[in-house]
Amino acid sequence: MTEAVEYDVVVLGAGPVGENVADRTRAAGLSTAVVESELIGGECSYWACVPSKALLRPALARADARRVPGLAGSVQGPLDAKAVLARRDERVGDWNDAGQAEWLDSIGVRLYRGHGRLHGPRSVVVDGPEKEHHLLTARHAVVVATGSRAVLPDLPGLVGARPWTSREATSAREVPDRLVVVGGGVVGVEMATAWQALGSRVTLLVRDGGVLPRMEPFVGEHVVDALKEAGADVRLHTSVAAVDRPGGSTGPVTVVLGDGSSVEADEVLFATGRAPRTAGIGLESVNLTDGSWLTVDDSCRVEGTDWLYAVGDVNHRALLTHQGKYQARIAGAAIAARAQKVPLLETDRWGAHSATADHAAVPQVVFTDPEAAAVGLSLAEAERAGHRVRAVDYDLGSVAGAGLYAENYRGHARMVVDLDREIVLGVTFVGPGVGELLHSATVAVAGEVPIDRLWHAVPAFPTISEVWLRLLEAYRG
Question: In this entry, which stretches build a coiled coil (predicted)?
Answer without folding.
Answer: none
